[in-house]
Design goal:
Blueprint lengths: L4 H10 L13 H15 L2 H11 L16 H7 L4 E4 L2 E2 L7 E2 L9 H5 L3 E8 L4 E8 L15 H19 L4 E10 L9 E11 L2 E10 L6 E11 L8
Antiparallel strand pairs: 1-4, 2-3, 4-5, 5-7, 6-9, 7-8, 8-9
Length: 241
């Protein structure tokens, strides 16, 4: 027996089930989601680098900065002609590389004022590495008022973020950490500028591997913490998000 579409729709309505036209015009919200999926899929590492460099960021003083005026490490990085400063970008509704005006867990004013982490990143065009510096205050410590060092979670957050930006700028602009292993070699002090360095180890299919470390910025350059991260290109999963 053949049931015509109009009869089928009437039957659905009779049972309180709304029918949906096969020729339904997408709503503004659906169009936005479609655009977001497209922007998540179309980015390239080259495009990400170009947009980050174009947008730039002086990494200077701000009201919430944990770096004191004239900080030696920050000024050394800022004055190096082979480095340019950048901030995290993500694919959004307007394009594949958008800045974060409201920040995030490890970026923006709240990361500094509430979590006590001030991370500044640069890209080194000579070595194709991400370099930077970070300062922690008491909000990132194991316990405020107990004269204890920086909490391991804060240290690992900085390494996770830095290695992800290395992966985005060199391999896949829309990625996620699949697995990561940390080693905290020494206690990490508060209120001292520390050096951050990340390098791309390899790219295999949809995955890349990045090594990151936090070092004492003093002459000995001791490694305080390091990690190995495996990151995965999220383009393959856009339709499932």
């Amino acid at each position: 027996m053949t049931i015509h579409t109009t009869q089928y729709d009437q039957s659905l309505r009779h049972h309180g089930i709304p029918s949906v036209s096969r020729d339904k015009v997408p709503t503004a919200s659906e169009k936005d989601e479609s655009r977001l999926r497209e922007n998540r899929s179309c980015g390239t590492a080259e495009g990400y680098r170009a947009q980050c460099k174009k947008d730039g960021h002086g990494h200077g003083q701000s009201e919430t900065s944990l770096f004191p005026p004239g900080d030696a490490l920050l000024e050394s990085l800022s004055s190096n002609p082979s480095l340019w400063p950048f901030e995290k970008h993500l694919p959004g509704y307007q394009g594949p590389y958008e800045g974060l005006p409201e920040g995030g867990w490890i970026t923006g004013a709240e990361a500094v004022s509430k979590r006590g982490i001030d991370l500044r990143l640069f890209y080194d065009e000579d070595t194709c590495m991400v370099k930077g510096c970070v300062r922690f205050n008491a909000n990132a410590s194991i316990g405020k008022g107990f004269s204890l060092p920086v909490h391991g979670g804060a240290i690992e957050t900085v390494l996770d973020e830095s290695t992800a930006e290395m992966g985005k700028i060199a391999a896949f602009p829309f990625l996620a950490t699949r697995k990561i292993s940390f080693e905290i070699k020494k206690s990490v002090p508060m209120d001292i500028s520390l050096y951050v360095e990340c390098s791309l180890m390899n790219i295999k299919g949809l995955r890349c591997r990045v090594h990151g470390k936090i070092l004492d910025a003093m002459e000995d350059g001791a490694v305080l913490a390091e990690c190995d991260a495996e990151l995965v290109n999220m383009v393959a999963f856009v339709d499932k998000m």
